[in-house]
Structures are given as C-alpha cells and as structure tokens.
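Holo model, pyridoxal-5'-phosphate. Inputs:
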Amino acid sequence: MPGNEQRRVKLSHRARTRPAAGIRTLFPKEKVPGMISLLAGKPNEKSFPFKALTIDTQGADGEDVKLKVDGEELAEALNYGLTPGITGLVQWLMEFQARAHNRPIGPDWRLNLGAGSQDLIIKTFEAMMDRGDVILAEDPVYAGVLPALESQGCRVVPVPTNRDGIIVSQLQHILENWESAPMTKDLPRPKCLYTSPTGGNPSGTTQTEAVKEGVLREAIKHDFTILEDDPYYYLEYPTAGAPASSAVDRPRPRSYWSMDYEWGNGHVVRFESFSKLIGAGLRVGFAMGPAYILDAVDAHTANTNLQPSGLSQVVIYSLLRNWGSEGFYKHVDRTAAMYREKAVRFEECARRILCKPGLARFETPTAGMFLWLELNLPESKADTMAFISEKAVPAGVLAVPGFVFLPLPQRTKYVRVSFSKLADEDFEEACMRLKRAVEACWEEVGESVPEVGV
Ligand SMILES: Cc1ncc(COP(=O)(O)O)c(C=O)c1O
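Output:
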C-alpha cells in the first residue's frame, strides 16, 4: 500500500558480511561540485584512442538516424564509472519505469544496471539466499537460473504451471502443506519465488493478471520475495489489426512490481533486459526493487566485475534519448509484431505437420520466441536428451531437450523450439525434420504412432 512501511528481510550471510569496495563507495562523491578527486586508478581518457562514436540507428519511426557520442560523455563511458550505471541512463529508466508501471519514484525503490539481467538475477539470488535456503520456481523454468541456484546450494521447489502461468491453487497447496508434504517437510520455508511471467522461456505463455494477483497474495501471506524476470514483457504479441499509433497508450499487462506498490511493498524485485530489444551482446539489463537488496547486488558487482560496460550503456542511452519513450514503445511494438508474424507462421506449420498426425502438441505462444513442444514418443524413448542427440541431430534439426528447464531433473518428452531467427522458407523443413525424428523413434520400437488429441 502506498505509504506502508516497507517490508525488509534478512539478507544472506554473504551479503551481510561482504566488505564494501573501498574505492568504489567514494566514486559518487566525485560528482560533488568543486570536489578535487585524487581517487586512484582511473586512467586519463586523453590516452584513449577514441575521438567520437558515430552510430547509424533506426529512429522512432524506422527512419535512418545518425547518433554521435563524444567529449565528456564519451570520456565518461570509456572510463571506470558508477557501479549501478551511468547516472543519466539510470534516471531515464527510472522515470520511464515509474510511468510504465504506475509506481512513482520514491524511497521504496531504486534501479540498477548490470551486465545483462542474468548478472543481476544471479547476484540477487546470492544476496537473498544462503546455502540450504529454498526458492519456488515455475515448472518449466528458464534454464539459465538453475545451475547458479545449484552451485549456490539453494533448493528449488517446482510450482506447476499451465497456459495462464503459475497454478495458484497448486502454489497454495504447496505452501499450506509445507510441513507435511514429502517434498518439502524437511526444508525451510521458501524465501523467494522465481518467475518469468511474459512469454515464459520455455513455455511461451503469459501469466494473467489474476494469476499474478493470486501469487502476490501468497507472497504477502507467506512472506517470500517474488523475483520477476520479465525480458519478454514488451514482446507480447499485438492483437492483429491494432493500429500502430497505439504503441504508446495501449494498455500493457500489470507487472508484479506494479501490484506490489498497491498491496505489498517490498515483496518484488523486477528484472528487465535490453537483450531481446536492442542487442543481446551489449550485455545490459536492469533491476528495480527495494534499495537494500539492490545495494547488496551493487556491492557484489563492486567486488567482482565492477560495473556494466560504459560503452554499451552510452550507446543505449543515446538511442533512448533520441527515441524518447514514444520511440521506445514504437520500436518494441515493431519487434513484437515481427515475432508474432513468425509465431503465427511457425505455429501453422507445426500444427499441420506435427500435431495433426499426433506427433506433438503445444500451447499457442502469446509472446516471445518459443514453442514448448510435447512430443508423442514411445514410453521407452520418452527422453528428449536422447531424442535430440540420436534422432533429431541425424535428421538435421536442433532443439533444446526439455529436461534442462525442469527444476527437478527427470526424463521428459518436451523440447523447446525457437523460431526467432528461423528464415520463413525453413519453417516447413524444420517441422518435417522433427516429424521424421519422432517417426524414427516409433519405427525403432516397431509401432505406428498412436492417435493423440491435437
Ligand atoms: C527468462 C530469461 N531471463 C533472463 C535471460 C538473460 O537475459 P540477459 O541477456 O539480459 O542476461 C534470458 C535470456 O534468454 C531469459 O530468457
């Protein structure tokens, strides 16, 4: 509730005991007017061989725009900079996010940048959880978080999902039976829940607002923090035929972080990324959340990779300044429309070639770039790791075996298929090759493919 005192949880032992990075904590003081800085370590930019950065970009309406970064701004970008990111970019993003998520700038949150959202997510896990602590995770879950959780010694408890996201009744059941259920009875209660609510990776589906409300209520009731990883937020497919001019004003789904302002306050850390929108190799993502959590993440950064790339940040900042929020919205809508077109065409091929003859089934994706295919494999072959290496690769097609997305390791008939970079002319052939690979499994057991619901 606005004005509510903010919830504050105990951070991990590592976060509480991490020594401050002596020099970096003094960096902000260099900005005090009149300050003479004798802080060690910053090279003199005059020695750097770059005079200016000229970038050919796409303007707000898709037109050609040349951007230039030089002088003080380039010098700052090329040097060591502030741990949470370049001040102007942080400010731009805070103002943008405040409007986008209807959560005014205030003492209850701040924003920091990282080397991609992955960097911030993994550091947040470490800031909030100790070895043996428990995190709830949607099942299937973004595979990129599982190795880090395992190496940090955290226990992952899977929460079932369907096409609307987390199944709230199942989440309630898990939480209410924690002390008696075989899976959880010997575990401490969960500290966090990790979810990727829009265009889930790998599910391709999007959580409804009702689901988010239900999950947030559980977070408040059972006192855990929702880690909302939303890199596909702007890649929700536009409704066919919606006027392009509505990019700025059209309503977008409410985030957990937005709802947290109304009901919770301190139950959500939200992660976004420029990877899917502007350039994955730039390695810039950002987080919004309670200052004490983001401070712990920054302290981790200050002791490890020091800061996100200044050059990447300044490229993004100059682009955003030129676009303004309107240009950003237009760009992300163009991007979402491109993926929608691919999704529609790929789905048509997959349904015709794979689902109709009963070889696979899937939920229609609503955002992002994935299909989560359940293959119809004979029980003795129901392991898509073996399927990919022994049948798909020889058939000339690659997909990700589903087990990497399962919080608890087990055999699975699922594969994740990405259509993001597939050329249109290859859609049909990709599905045909998957079809031949599935058929090869049935031939091997000497059976014909049984009929399944499409
Ligand atoms: C759900 C999800 N979270 C995080 C990431 C990592 O993104 P970034 O490039 O910002 O580190 C990805 C990348 O695929 C993703 O799908």
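Residues 116-118, 142, 144, 196, 201, 229, 231, 273, 275, 280, 285 surround pyridoxal-5'-phosphate (CB under 6 Å). The first strand starts at residue 52 and ends at 58.
Archived with the compound record.
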